Amino acid sequence: MGAAERTACITGAGQSDIGRRLGREPLELTLDACLAAIEDAGLRVADIDGLSTYPGSLNTPPGFSGGGAYEVIDALRLNVGWYDSGLETSGQLGSVIKAVMAVAAGFCNHVLCFRSVWEGSAQ
Fold first, then answer.
1. So what's the pLDDT on residue 113?
2. Predicted confidence band at 5 (pLDDT cuts at 50, 70, 90)?
3. In CA terms, which of 7, 49, 80, 84 is 20 to 30 Å from 68?
4. For the whole model, what pTM was predicted?
5. Which burial class, exposed, middle or buried, applies to 72 when counting CB atoms under 10 A from its CB (0-12, 13-18, 19+)?
6. Are 22 and 119 in contact (CB under 8 A)?
7. Is residue 87 within 8 Å of 72, Cβ to Cβ?
8. Which conformational region is residue 69 in: left (phi greater than 0), alpha (psi within -120 to 50 degrees), or beta?
9. How far is CA 31 from the centre of its chain?
10. Which residues pair with 111 in a beta bridge?
């Protein structure tokens, strides 16, 4: 195990409702999962100072992404010193790997990582 892995840990997890045609906006589902993860970690929204997501905000293919970094930062009114999103990474774990590196580098202390998919409802 490298030095970066010894400075960071996953402290919470969250999930939104899952199903087809839930009748809810993708960003709303993303926020539900994010808030559940923050609560599970024993943190407050104000504690979050970093954000990492994969793949980020995309319009095509439909349903591949339900929200990007900017939308979540704005909706939760996060004050982040570091954030990252993008398709050019190693999939869903890429956001976690980048979060570990950001914590190890001292850019932030509590990074919210999320992946948002709504392909089952995207028609």
1. 95
2. confident
3. 7
4. 0.87
5. buried
6. no
7. no
8. alpha
9. 9
10. 50
Whole-angstrom distance, CA of residue 105 vs CA of residue 108: 8
Beta bridge partners of 53: 85, 114
**pLDDT tens digits along 76-116:** 999 999 999 887 777 778 899 999 999 999 999 999 999 88
- d(Cα 38, Cα 33) in Å, to the nearest integer? 9
Q: Is 50 helix (H, G, I), strand (E, B) or coil?
A: strand
CA distance 59 to 82: 24
For residues 73 and 105, give the distance between their C-alpha atoms in angstroms, rounded to a whole number: 21
Nearest-angstrom CA–CA distance, 18 and 67: 16
Residue among 58, 116, 120, 117 at smallest CA distance from 87? 58
Both tokens of residue 105?
A: 């580098």
Q: Phi and psi at residue 27, in whole multiples of 5°? A: -65, -40
